[in-house]
Design brief:
homodimer; 6 strands; Dna Ligase, domain 1; DNA-binding; three-stranded antiparallel β-sheet; 2 domains
DNA sequence: TCTCATTTGCAAATCGTTCGCATTTGCGTT
DNA sequence: AACGCAAATGCGAACGATTTGCAAATGAGA
């Protein structure tokens, strides 16, 4: 992502229009510390005095996801999708069952395992998804 | 699970009524090779000439899940929940992006990693979810 | 400035799932 | 076997997250 947060170039490079809603949504995701729901993004846009319809947020996120600028994820037990900026890093999340905080980590225990799968199951791995649940240091004493 | 597929004892042991719908759903999940959606379960019940409402299937699955007889899961990119009989085994799924076949495996590369998380992040792990995507041996040549 | 394909406003529709209430059923008790 | 009653199901509506349709607005190339 460009240092000066200029998404115009990024959007143009992907062959799509650089609209104010798209840039605003990308900025909101960049500022967010954790993946956001559509409603959270929508409300943040409203706070910034932007006029936008919820269906537009959905459409915009769908376009940005299809261009790999944004990552869409759902998490076990959560029926709402969440979105985050795609930093092109390989990372996963630890999720606290108590406070629902999500902490990302980049060490991946699955990489070596994928080679074993190719050998044992004749399976060509292209991606994986890992989520780890438990209690963070703040919540482990209140469970 | 009982060898003679008699779920009456299982349901009674959990303190809930042993109804024909519940036994039928447990049997369908036992016969299934992969986790099933609510609609698939509903249609299979219909094929067996059972009269049932979709809302009853949802309620029954919710009760069976709460008693740990059934496992509910969602998978990346799939907006429908899926259900499978709980064999009390620790396993994960490899999912073929081509034919959507799901193959389970029991080796788990995450177990050792959980200890590292406790040490490094002061995080008490209680569960994890792992899905691996790619192409099975039948689809790798058509991608 | 003009043009036009793309995007958004606006609102309804869809889908997966849950809820409310009347009726039926499973099962413990007699 | 009959009875009673709490739980389960029939029936259909409701809910929330998401998608769709169409007219109007906008971004960007010429």
């Amino acid at each position: 992502m460009p240092d000066n947060n200029d998404y115009k170039e990024v959007l143009t490079r992907e062959g799509i229009k650089s609209t104010k809603h798209r840039k605003a949504i990308l900025e909101i995701l960049e500022m967010a510390e954790t993946p956001l729901t559509v409603e959270e993004i929508f409300l943040t846009l409203k706070e910034k005095h932007a006029s936008i319809w919820l269906s537009t947020v959905y459409r915009t996120l769908e376009i940005l996801t299809s261009k790999d600028l944004v990552i869409k994820s759902t998490i076990m037990g959560d029926d709402k999708a969440r979105y985050e900026l795609n930093h092109n890093e390989h990372k996963h999340h630890v999720v606290c069952v108590g406070c629902h905080k999500r902490i990302s980590f980049e060490d991946c225990p699955v990489n070596e395992f994928e080679k074993a799968l190719k050998e044992r199951m004749d399976f060509d791995v292209t991606a994986h998804k890992l989520e780890i649940y438990g209690y963070c240091k703040d919540c482990k004493f209140t469970k």
